[in-house]
């Protein structure tokens, strides 16, 4: 398709990765995590994943409305 939709009508909130990999958000994140941080990853790379997850959680908490 020339319109960039890869044969479907993506929702405005979907990312390019969701469309390219053809999965929902959770599937895409799991795929990319496994690709990057799989069983053959170094301990240094796995430590970077832990650090990134903590930063992502902090960002999510700041974005969430206070209750």
What's the layout of helices and strands?
Blueprint: H1 16-21, H2 25-37, H3 43-63
List keywords for this structure.
mainly alpha; 3 helices; 0% strand
Q: Write down the domain tally.
A: 1
Instruction: Count all strands and give the number.
Output: 0
Overall, the morphology is flat
How many helix segments? 3
- Provide the structure class: mainly alpha
Q: Which percent band covers the strand fraction?
A: under 5%
In round numbers, the mean pLDDT is: 77
Biggest sheet, open or closed, and with what strands and sense? Answer: none
Helical residues, percent: 55-70%
Uncertain stretches of 5 or more adjacent residues: 1-5
Rg value: 16 Å
Order of helices and strands: HHH
What's the end-to-end separation, in Å?
45 Å
Description:
This protein has helices at 16-21, 25-37, 43-63. With 67 residues, it is mainly α. The chain has one domain (16-63). The chain is flat and about 35 Å long.
Please summarize what this structure is.
Helix content is 60%, strand content 0%. It has 67 residues and is an all-alpha fold.
